[in-house]
Each structure stands twice: as C-alpha cells, then as structure tokens.
Amino acid sequence: MLLLGAASDGSLRIGREQERIRTIVQRATHRDLVDLDVHSAATADTLLDALPRFCPHIVHFSGHSGENLLEFERDVDDLHESAIVSASAFAGAIAAVDEKPLLVVLNSCHSAGQTEGLVETVPFASA
C-alpha cells in the first residue's frame, strides 16, 4: 500500500491518519502480507518514483484537492503553496506503470468526480 499525504499549509493531520492506518495493518491477522510505503509530505516526484519502484496494489492519497486537481507538497521545508497536479496527470501517472494498482483511494475534498477517470485505468477507485 502506497500512502501519500500532502498538506503544505499544515492544515491537515496527515501523519496522524497514516499512523492510524499503520496501526490497523499491524493488528490485522495477515499483517505480514501487507507492505506500507508511507510518505507524509508527498511531492509529485514521490508519486512518480514510488509507483514503478514499489508497485503498490493500493494507492491512498490524503490531502487537499478540487474536482480536477490534487495538491501535492513542494520540496521545501517551510509552509508553502501546494504543487497542483491535474486529475488527468495523476491518472496518467498511474496508467503509465506496468503493474497498475487495483485500488486508488482519494481521501480529499471534492475528489469524487476524479474516480470516473481512474476506473478507466484501475479496477476500483474511491473518494
């Protein structure tokens, strides 16, 4: 499972959400079958690197979004403006890998409309 979190303005508790997911996986019966690749300050480059390297079955994004965009971090240390990634570019990155995820979860506001574009590439998408 690839966990991508992004809240460049510090307004979301991404680390806390990812820790809850990690705890649930650790308590699961078949926890040895689950590998987590966790990025609490994910940039667009993180996504592009992790998809082919890790080959996740599940991609889980937590952060801000709009109907046609996701907001990733920039590679800076201070609070900053987010890096905008269009929904089509996000779906295109997922479509470009040889081993596509089975599920993409978008835990972000206004992302429900993006699932239609994702299910053209992956079997399941949820917002």
Distance between the termini: 16 Å
Q: How many strand elements?
A: 8
Q: N-to-C SSE series?
A: EHEHEEEEHEHE
The proportion of strand residues reads 25-35%
Structural class comes to: alpha/beta
Radius of gyration from the CA trace?
14 Å
Mean pLDDT: 95
Q: How would you characterize the overall build of this protein?
A:
The protein has helices spanning 14-27, 44-54, 87-95, 114-118; strands at residues 2-6, 37-39, 58-63, 65-66, 69-72, 83-86, 103-107, 124-126. The protein is an alpha/beta fold. It contains 4 helices and 8 strands, in the order βαβαββββαβαβ.
How would you summarize what this structure contains?
This protein has helices at 14-27, 44-54, 87-95, 114-118; strands spanning 2-6, 37-39, 58-63, 65-66, 69-72, 83-86, 103-107, 124-126.
Write the layout of secondary structure elements.
Blueprint lengths: L1 E5 L7 H14 L9 E3 L4 H11 L3 E6 L1 E2 L2 E4 L10 E4 H9 L7 E5 L6 H5 L5 E3 L1
Parallel strand pairs: 1-2, 1-3, 3-7, 7-8
Antiparallel strand pairs: 4-5, 5-6
Feature tags:
127 residues; globular; single chain
